[in-house]
Amino acid sequence: MRRQPFVPVRIHLSDGTTYEVRHPEMAIIGRSAVTIGVEAEEGSGIADRMMYCSLLHIVRVEDANGRDLSRKGENLP
After folding, report:
1. Cβ–Cβ contacts within 10 Å for residue 57, how many?
2. pTM to 2 decimals?
3. What whole-number distance in Å separates Cα of residue 71 and Cα of residue 66?
4. Residue 8: helix, strand or coil by DSSP?
5. Residue from 54, 24, 26 nearest 40 by CA
6. How many CB atoms neighbour CB 26 within 10 A?
7. Measuring CA to CA, which residue among 45, 62, 18, 9 is closest to residue 70?
8. Do residues 24 and 9 lie in contact, with contact meaning Cβ atoms separated by under 8 Å?
9. Does residue 44 sit in helix, strand or coil?
10. Phi first, then psi: what are they for 45, rounded to 5°?
11. Which one, of 4, 5, 49, 3, lies nearest residue 26 by Cα?
């Protein structure tokens, strides 16, 4: 989330759900979970609802172009 310039990411969860984080202020990373703001209207920059996702259930993180960022040794955004 600190990558400059910011690169939008897609987070894949163990249940098959995916969330896109298009702005760094739409995600808060905690010790055991990430809180993701979900926009009602894409591009609005306003979270309509918040999703709380356990870090244990994140199986892959990729940039908006599909490049996998969750491999060992790779710096996560």
Report:
1. 14
2. 0.78
3. 13
4. coil
5. 26
6. 20
7. 62
8. no
9. coil
10. 75, 10
11. 49
